[in-house]
Amino acid sequence: MALEQRKFQTTYVRELETPEVPKTLPKPRPSRRIFSVGEKFLFVLVASLLVLCATTILHTQAQINDANQEVQMLNKEIEETTKKNMELSIQVKEKSTYDRIWEKAKELGLDLNENNVKVVPGR
Length: 123
Hints:
With 123 residues, the protein is mostly helical.
């Protein structure tokens, strides 16, 4: 067998040179997200802390108001008790006069016996 040399005819079609257009990379689209996930988390965290602090302040303020109201009520009661005590002490002074005691003693049938009288020093 003899080696034959075959001629392959190649149909050469001349290619037109097309200028290569540099491929432009697509412009990165700006992300539609304004805030990232971490920033959103921080915003939620700060907002919840603000709400917590505001609630705590309001609760404390309410407790202070309740305590002040109770103090005022106690002061009012103290003033009323003081007035009653003053009135009672005035009544004691009025009823502990010598003349009134002597009249009561006469009503009960007691006589003045100077031998049985002892002088007690006053307060």
